[in-house]
Design brief:
Blueprint: E1 4-12, E2 18-22, E3 28-33, H1 41-49, H2 61-65, E4 66-75, E5 78-85, E6 96-102, E7 118-119, H3 120-131, E8 139-140, E9 147-148, H4 152-155, E10 160-161, H5 181-193, H6 198-226, H7 232-243, H8 256-276, H9 285-331, E11 347-348, E12 355-356, H10 359-423, H11 427-451, H12 459-472, H13 478-499, E13 509-512, E14 517-522, E15 525-528, H14 535-556, E16 563-567, H15 586-605, E17 611-616, H16 623-626, E18 629-633
Parallel strand pairs: 3-17, 3-18, 10-16, 16-17
Antiparallel strand pairs: 1-2, 1-4, 4-5, 5-6, 6-7, 8-9, 11-12, 13-14, 14-15
Helix pairs in contact: 6-12, 7-8, 7-11, 8-11, 9-10, 13-14, 14-15
Organism: Streptomyces broussonetiae
InterPro entries: DUF3732
Coiled coil: 200-227, 293-330, 384-425, 452-479
Length: 656
């Protein structure tokens, strides 16, 4: 079961300032009021408290006078209170939240009792769990070589319709206009509609990882073959070093292991000889440059070793976490054996509920293992980001060292060129310097691979595992299920569109998840929402689509919050400068009431399983509207989201 919004709370910047806006669950709630009274801020506050990565609350009275925000989330028998401070000056967003599990109907605590210590990612995981999202499932990202773990942030695409979205012909879902969001929405829709089998998703993810491992292994093997000490380039450099007098002639052919050592000997021996031949190295720019280069090369080697260690640690963490999650899923089946809440004894049979006393010891042992696994997963989850951050720092330092090494070589080349021009070095000396430079470049760019651990050729094993998974997934019917579900949802959209009298509602209507729009299949060809014309059509199809999706989520127990928030659907029937009077008349009023009628009918049909929150300029006299108003924020009654007594000076910024 997932949640609905029970209340939104704002805390002022002065002690004791608290304002709570309550909402009724399982029904339609309307907040009506004048412009700049904070109505639209409700949606952005809820978004912010539900682990948004940015600060969506617009500039104005709310930002100026509110120091913290909170939402109370409710589902049968449970309540979750989530609070988040406004960002400190100079910060883009606050990265810690306060998340409290409460008894149902518990009021929001005072600000001074709140502890903001839950990191943003952890809060997002808690909210995802409270929403009923299976965080072990991963779905492929559309047009991107990665997977997506569905979260509360993805579920909100189907719960919000901001003021610039609710009648937008080009954007059907919340945040659809932002970069990468369309592909993300396409990727997560099958999961939230219930078309994704968790076991199949795990197999797909395993197949993707195996294919990636095979590709990486083939690249490493090719690299090892081409960059070994006995490669053609290395042996050619060895021959040139002998001819240039950097190494003595050898009668026997060196082995593969000896080639690298001889090249290093040629480079270090010539440098040592050059340094010893100079009486005063302190004043020699070439000696100083060569010394700095040697130090940089050693630093590069140490940095590479640290990065390799960190990568191994991250891989080990990921492997352990995967195995631990699989073990936890098996142990979690203990939920079928229920213990008495009073005595913590006498496990009950999940079928007949009769006590099974002999199961107590076994159940307790498994519960202990489950708690231990949860602790291990939490530790691993906190270690991995730290390791990744350290690895990123090391990578950055390595890049800096490489840049310095490149600059050092350029410095040595310039100094050498200048010295040769001044001293008119003999041809043999010039050739030796040239060969020494090429050896140095080779050692810097390729020879480090020789000292790395030997790459084990596991291609046959990986290819066998890939073939087995491909065989298992050959009968996957996810695509067929998604097509079937979309067909049923599209029928509901058409029924609602016909009730609203929308254009093309007499033709088959379909929800196109590839283009993220609604399409009418007419005798003249497909007509997309953007081509239907009339803001009334755009609004009507938005409302019909979102209501139909939430009907499906409710009936199929989809892990999406049972809340739909619409920001000013009446804008289609009001002028942009509407101030509250007059209300729409005649046909416009009838069409606007039809929107509210279809919302109310859907909510009532779902019998408490859906909550709709609408913020409006309009304030209609019809009982269909009037009976669902929970707040009126107008200048005439001095009501607003931010109480007037909090405001210490007049401002003109808009909150909506």
């Amino acid at each position: 079961m997932t949640f609905q919004i029970q209340a939104v709370t704002v805390y002022g910047k002065q002690p004791g300032q608290v304002r709570t806006v309550p909402f009724r669950t399982g029904t339609m709630n309307i907040v009506t009021g004048d412009s700049r009274r904070g109505k639209s801020a409700l949606l952005t506050i809820i978004d912010y408290c539900l682990a948004s990565s940015d600060y969506p609350v617009k500039a104005g009275k709310v930002r100026k006078y509110v120091g913290a925000y909170a939402v109370t989330l409710a589902k049968p028998g449970q309540q979750l209170f989530v609070a988040r401070r406004a960002p400190d000056p100079g910060n883009a967003v606050s990265t810690v939240l306060c998340v409290l599990s409460q008894a149902p109907e518990t009021p929001p605590p005072p600000l001074e009792e709140l502890t903001f210590a839950t990191p943003l990612d952890t809060a997002k995981d808690i909210l995802s769990d409270f929403c009923g999202i299976d965080r072990t499932v991963k779905v492929p990202a559309v047009a991107r070589a990665q997977t997506i773990a569905p979260s509360i942030r993805h579920a909100l695409y189907f719960c919000f319709q901001a003021q610039n979205e609710v009648a937008n012909p080009d954007l059907l879902f919340h945040s659809q206009g932002e970069e990468w969001r369309p592909n993300t929405i396409r990727g997560v829709i099958p999961y939230f509609l219930g078309a994704v089998d968790p076991e199949q998703a795990a197999l797909h993810n395993r197949l993707r990882l195996l294919r990636r491992d095979l590709s990486d292994l083939e690249a490493k093997l090719a690299q090892a073959r081409g960059l070994g000490p006995a490669s053609g380039q290395a042996r050619a450099l060895l021959t040139e070093a002998v001819e240039a007098g950097l190494l003595p002639h050898r009668d026997s052919e060196p082995t593969a292991e000896e080639v690298l050592g001889l090249l290093r000997l040629a480079l270090e021996g010539s440098i040592r000889q050059e340094l010893e031949s100079r009486p005063d190295n302190d004043g020699d720019p070439l000696a100083a440059a060569i010394g700095r280069r040697a130090q940089l090369r050693r630093a590069v080697g140490r940095s590479r070793a640290r990065i390799a260690d960190l990568k191994r640690a991250v891989e080990e963490n990921d492997d352990f976490a995967g195995e631990a999650r699989e073990q936890r899923r098996r142990l979690a089946s203990l939920g079928l054996m229920r213990l008495s809440p009073d005595t913590s004894q006498a496990a009950q049979c999940p079928v007949c509920e009769s006590p099974i006393a002999s199961a107590n010891t076994t159940v307790a042992t498994i519960m202990h293992d489950l708690e231990r696994l949860d602790g291990d997963l939490q530790v691993i989850g906190s270690d991995t980001p730290a390791l990744q951050r350290q690895m990123a720092l090391e990578e950055e330092q390595l890049q800096q060292l490489r840049a310095a090494l490149s600059g050092s070589q350029d410095e040595i080349n310039e100094i050498s060129a200048g010295l040769r021009a001044l001293q008119q070095e003999p041809d043999q000396s010039q050739r030796a310097a040239h060969v020494r430079g090429r050896i140095s470049l080779y050692l810097d760019t390729t020879a480090q691979h020789v000292s790395a651990p030997q790459v084990e050729d596991r291609r046959d094993d990986l290819q066998r595992q890939i073939a087995e998974l491909e065989e298992l997934l050959s009968d996957d019917t996810q695509g067929d299920r998604l097509t079937s579900y979309l067909s049923l949802i599209s029928q509901n959209i058409r029924t609602k569109a016909a009730s609203l009298g929308l254009d093309h509602s007499d033709a088959p209507i379909r929800l196109d998840v590839n283009r993220l729009t609604v399409v009418a299949d007419t005798a003249d060809g497909p007509v997309r929402l953007a081509d239907m014309g009339s803001a009334e059509n755009h609004l009507g199809y938005h409302v019909a689509t979102l209501l139909s999706l939430h009907e499906w989520f409710s009936e199929q127990r989809g892990p999406v919050p049972r809340t739909l928030i619409l920001d000013q659907p009446s804008q289609v029937y009001f002028p942009p400068d509407y101030t509250g009077e007059p209300t729409p008349q005649g046909t416009d009023l009838s069409h606007l009431l039809n929107i509210y009628r279809i919302i109310n009918d859907t909510v009532q049909a779902l019998d408490g399983a859906l909550q709709v929150i609408v913020v409006e300029h309009a304030d209609l006299a019809d009982p269909l509207f009037r009976d669902h108003v929970v707040e009126r924020w107008r200048y005439s009654n001095s009501q607003a989201l931010v109480p007037s007594e909090w405001i210490t000076e007049p401002i003109d910024d808009e909150d909506e």
